[in-house]
Design brief:
By secondary structure, the protein is an alpha+beta fold. The protein has 14 helices and 19 strands. 36% of the residues lie in helices and 22% in strands.
Length: 554
């Protein structure tokens, strides 16, 4: 098989790979409807023994055990910091809504992005399990205090309190910090009763399991779908994903008991996760409610509290963007929520380099260009060898054509003559394929980096390119990309086979169609790479053209 045919094979193979991946993402089976699950009023009850997974059965009348019948709705406390606007409902002391001030909605850039909120039944709930403890169905009282982070203040606290049975009193404390999406949530438990108690605290996230607007936009435009669902991390089991469909089928596989780690709900670009302190025993559970919401929960024992004593259980909540610099600082393994697909091992260093170049240039488009130059430099020796092989192939093309004419009816003799020619001229017929083979995994990894890294979401380059993670609105980059592919074809040796020559002639136009549906940043990368390749190949071809008379004498 000659070089041109191999190149054609790899181009078609890569194209089919991308089409198959897009089809599979789009046509994968959807979750089947689930039979009625526990009531929306459900709260976890105490485990029958330490370390057991908590039950989640409501009382016989459907009310929450141990909770006074709440009012139809409570008040809403609005908290404002430099990064978020949060709403806490006194019914449940629940974090009902979080708007991110530095990020805009995917389809309406005039609106702040809503991470937690009613659209997806997305809430962060917490409380005390069992009949005697205040929970996310209890009416809490907000204590007086500021709810706006003032200039010069580093943090503010919002405190809510509720009474349980038998002298159990709980104060829930939300602590918001400047320049942080991390919210410290503490349950201060007091025992004013006559008997010791051993309460359990729970921290849970609810979500309807549907993809976000960002994920839908990416799926509609690029045919790719990032992970949407729960994730659990422990030092022993590391990172485990749980899709809503797996909960529906009762096949969710995740660690149930641990003394470290965290759990989160992951969506495209954003994440919310509970991060209990390390070395603190916790149990994880997941289920689907009757209202369609999925629930992920961490259950933490507060220990035995003597009469007149108290205990505090704290679990910070991160609710914000998947900015890797922040995720790394939050908790071990939390940066794994960024979904780079099956080439993560290549995507991570690519993003690391991008981040460094962005730090130097202040522009993500310039960073992509610098990354392209760096990759080209790293693989320069390999590319140079490949282009030399292609240049030699171009010089001996007339002789190859003559061999085909001489042995057109005897393929065995033709292949033998070709091999002798390759050996005499020291040509590697596979050499021209290496640039493509090298670029394909980098290309796919960078594709996922541009789709998954929130740092590139709505990141402008210059002029008409105002979002490197979206399509080029005027298709200028894909058109330029097509031009460079045509030029590269002209520099390559013409296949002796007329049919193959025609296929290669039109291949740039066929293959370039894909680039009209790729993110602008990815097309920018490939365009710059092609320009550098053309310059390198042109220079090498000039060097070999000088030896053309010598070849002609043979």
């Amino acid at each position: 098989m000659d070089t041109q045919r191999l190149i054609l094979f790899f181009v078609f193979g890569f194209s089919l790979l991308m089409l198959w991946d897009a089809w599979e993402k789009e046509h994968r089976p959807r979750p089947a409807p689930q039979a009625q699950a526990p009531s929306a009023a459900t709260v976890p009850t105490p485990a029958s023994k330490p370390g057991a997974v908590p039950a989640a059965a409501p009382a016989a009348d459907g009310s929450v055990p141990g909770a006074a019948a709440p009012a139809a709705k409570g008040e809403t406390v609005v908290v404002r910091t430099d990064l978020i606007v949060a709403e806490i409902g006194t019914l449940g002391a629940t974090l009902k809504r979080v708007d991110l001030l530095k990020h805009k909605e995917a389809k309406d850039s005039s609106k702040n992005l809503t991470l937690l909120g009613p659209e997806h039944l997305y809430e962060a709930q917490s409380g005390i399990t069992g009949e005697g403890g205040p929970n996310h169905r209890t009416l809490w009282s907000v204590q007086p205090g500021s709810t706006t982070l003032g200039a010069g203040e580093s943090a503010l606290e919002v405190r809510l309190s509720a009474q349980g049975k038998d002298g159990l009193a709980v104060t829930k404390v939300y602590r918001f910090k400047r320049d942080s999406y991390l919210i410290d949530v503490a349950l201060e438990i007091g025992n004013a009763g006559a008997q010791p108690i051993s309460p359990y605290a729970y921290f849970q996230l609810t979500h309807d399991g549907k993809a976000s607007a960002d994920a839908n936009a990416v799926a509609e435009t690029f045919g790719a779908q990032s992970f949407n669902g729960f994730a659990v991390y422990t030092e022993e089991k590391k990172f485990q994903k749980v899709q809503p469909a797996e909960i529906d089928k009762g096949k969710a596989d995740f660690v149930k008991q641990a003394s470290d780690g965290w759990f989160a709900y992951v969506q495209h670009y954003f994440v919310a996760g509970w991060l209990p302190s390390a070395k603190l025993a916790r149990e994880y559970a997941m289920e689907k409610r009757a209202d369609g919401a999925y629930v992920g929960r961490a259950l933490i024992p507060a220990g035995t509290i003597a009469p007149g004593g108290s205990a505090t259980v704290t679990a910070p909540l991160y609710a914000g963007p998947q900015e890797q610099s922040r995720l790394v600082a939050v908790a071990p393994g939390f940066d794994l929520v960024v979904d780079y697909g099956w080439l993560t091992i290549i995507a991570w260093p690519l993003f690391w380099l991008l981040e460094k170049f962005h730090g130097l240039s202040g522009n993500w488009g310039v960073a992509i260009i610098l990354l392209t130059v760096t990759i080209k430099f790293v693989f320069f020796p390999l590319s140079a060898a490949s282009y030399k092989s292609m240049a030699k192939m171009k010089l001996v093309t007339p002789r190859m054509t003559k061999i085909r004419e001489m042995y057109g009816n005897d393929r065995a003799k033709m292949n033998q003559a070709m091999m002798e020619l390759y050996k005499t001229e020291k040509i590697n017929p596979l050499g021209g394929c290496f640039p493509i083979l090298v670029q394909i995994p980098v290309f796919i990894a960078l594709y996922w980096v541009l789709l998954a890294a929130i740092e590139l979401r709505h990141a402008p380059f210059m002029l008409w390119i105002q979002d490197l993670s979206a399509l080029d609105p005027y298709y200028v980059l894909p058109i330029l990309m097509t031009v460079t592919m045509v030029i590269q074809t002209k520099l390559n040796p013409v296949p002796p086979d007329p049919v193959q020559a025609q296929v290669m002639k039109y291949m740039p136009f066929v293959f370039s169609i894909f680039f009209f549906f790729f993110p602008a940043g990815l097309v920018l990368y490939w365009l710059v790479n092609n320009v550098l390749s053309i310059l390198q190949q042109w220079q090498i071809q000039r060097m070999f053209d000088r030896d053309k008379p010598a070849h002609a004498k043979r």
